[in-house]
Structure formats: structure tokens, C-alpha cells
Amino acid sequence: MTRKLALITLLSLLLTRTATAAPGVVDLALQDVGTGSVAEMKRSIFSLPFTVYDAKDYRPAIASLPQSIREGRISEGQLLRRVESIIRPVIELHHHTDKIELFLYRDEFARAMVWLGCVLVISDALADRLHDDELAGIVAHEMGHAYFMIETIKARKHGDHQAMKIVELECDAVAMLTLKLLGHDPADHFRGLRGVTNIDRTNGSNRIDSRDYPSIGERAQFAQRFIKLLA
Ligand SMILES: [Zn+2]
After folding, report:
1. Count of other CB atoms within 10 angstroms of residue 93
2. What is the pTM of this model?
3. Which of 38, 135, 191, 218 has the most CB atoms within 10 Å of its CB?
């Protein structure tokens, strides 16, 4: 009887904790981006301001890349042509045509970033291992960061790890929305994220501050719930 009572007390305590728990990063990110129809989400996200660059900005931006990246540039070949054709529709959808330069380079780690707002840096390990739509999703995520620059700068300034995680999830939302608008399966973005994690795990990479990134479980949960909203 006493054991039964203790069990009931424990259960009710657990339930109360769950009911009153503060919303986590997944809920907060969904509150920010996950309202309205696909068209409304497109309008609200794509109308966020971002800095526009042009061809004259590429050269100094590339010159300021770390030497190890700069020296490994891949400037011809089948992989480059494949990546160019995958990223073109993503760049066009986000109105970045002629505002961003692709920089493919050799690296055993899976890397993608937009450097100084105008150079899309992608490693061959990433491009090689991901399927076309998965890579398109990762590129859209990186381009998504341009829409959330103000939040990122503010979060960095205050060392706000939760806000940094929310930005990451918001960029995942941009990626899934992009895939949906291009007629691909939005779930491919999460498959791409899992691919990146696996490549880096195999190679023993630990170059990121994990406090600023949602766990793969949080990203899966966010993707699942966001895709339902896109359906
Ligand atoms: Zn990111």
C-alpha cells in the first residue's frame, strides 16, 4: 500500500514537472517560424532583410579564408558541376543569384558555411557523401543564416546558447521550406543532417561548440513537427 502511494506521488510529481516545464528550444523555434500556410511562411521568412553582396566582394572574402581551405579549392571536374547544378535552384529561390560564389574545397570533414555573406564554402566530403536533395537542404540551411543575422549577433554577444540553438532550428525550417518549395521531400534535410553527423563522427571531428547547437534528437523532433505543418 505504501509502495503504491509512493508510486502515485512520484508519478504525479513527474506529471506536474512536465506540465509546468518551460518550453524547450523546439517549441520556441516552432513558435517563431511555424505558423501559417507554406505561402505565409515563405512570405514572412523570405522578406527578412539580408545584406546584399556582389561580384567585387568575392575576391577579398576568398582571400580572407583560412589558408588550409583556400589552398584546397576545387575549380573543375564532375563534382563541381554537380554541386553547381544542385545549388542553383536554391540560390535562385532565395534571390541570391550573382550574389554568392561557390567555393568547393578538399576536406575530410563535412563542412558548409556562407563566408562573409557572399562565399558558399562546401567541402568535398560533404558534397560527395550526400544525395542531391540532402545537399540542397544543407545549402539552404546555410543561406538561412543570412535571415537571422541580428538574432545571431545578439545571442553571441550575450553568450546565449539557447538563442543560438533556436537560430539553428530556424535555419532548419528555412531548409525544409526550401525543399518543399522546390518540389523535394523536406525530410531529406534531416537525412542530410544525419549524414553530416555520421561523416564527422567517423572522422573524429569536434570543431564546433556543442552548447550552440541543438542535439540531433532535438533536430529530429523539430523536423518531424515542422514537416507536419508543411503538409
Ligand atoms: Zn547553422
Report:
1. 18
2. 0.84
3. 135
